[in-house]
Amino acid sequence: MADDHHLPSDASTLSESVDEHQIKQSITEADELKQEGNESFRASRWNEALVSYRTALGRLPKRKTQTPSPDSSQDDTSDHGGTRSSSSEVQTREEGPESANIPSELEAKCAKARAVLNANIGACLVKLSDYSGAVESCTQSLLDDPHYIKALQRRAVSNEHLDTWSSLTQAQEDYKSLLELLPPTSPQVAQTKRSLQLLEPRQQAAQKKEMAEMTGKLKSLGNSILGNFGLSTDNFKFEPNGQGGYSMNFAR
């Protein structure tokens, strides 16, 4: 008589084998679509490349919560010359089928493929001047590989184009990360240092501008309320009190 206790285990093994085959097939299909996208990108057909990359991304499983990163030794030279390195943990994403029970080796390959595809999508969006979209795509790429140099570079450049206080601050952080990741002999080190140096006065100017705009809006709101009492914010003066704080004086 057959031992019924072994049946669930055998069924589970079969299911895992089928799932593994499906994942490998998905990775193969995604890679083929990525190659199509690379050809379109090299031909400056940005929209066609974008469709190929997004379709390829949709073939891959969703990102797991806290999964290992791709092996840094597996460079993807087809990513328009991209450079990769290792990462620690990643978060949840939305594209593709479910990724439960994927063997860690396959998940590492999926993570690598997702990181490359999202970075390539970011490259297309930069070419199309969709800098907000490029920032989002590169951020998704960095969730799978926080040390992906091309994704950091593209996000930094895109944030510079957005030219807000918060975006310029993010660009600063990305350039600092790049200086930690790039080999000391890399020719990109000098350019990254220069970009960071030029960025600082822009970030400070954007901060002052946005703070002034916020203060102006608050003052306008205050005046609209105080006006009901025949007053305005000009009736209240804030002066340093010599103890690291401010004192408020009322003047007619």
Describe this structure in words.
This protein is mainly alpha-helical. Helices cover 63% and strands 4% of the residues. Strands 1-2 form a two-stranded antiparallel sheet. Strand 1 (236-240) and strand 2 (246-250) form a beta hairpin. Residues 1-8, 11-15, 67-78 and 81-95 have low confidence and may be disordered.
Strand order of the largest sheet: 1-2
Distinct helical segment count = 7
Q: Spans with pLDDT under 50 lasting ≥5 residues?
A: 1-8, 11-15, 67-78, 81-95
Summed over residues and divided by their number, the pLDDT gives a mean of 78
| Overall helicity | 55-70%
- Structural class call reads mainly alpha
**Beta-strand percent range:** under 5%
Radius of gyration: 26 Å
Distance between the termini: 101 Å
Give, in order, the helices and strands: HHHHHHHEE
Shape: elongated
Q: What is the total tally of β strands?
A: 2
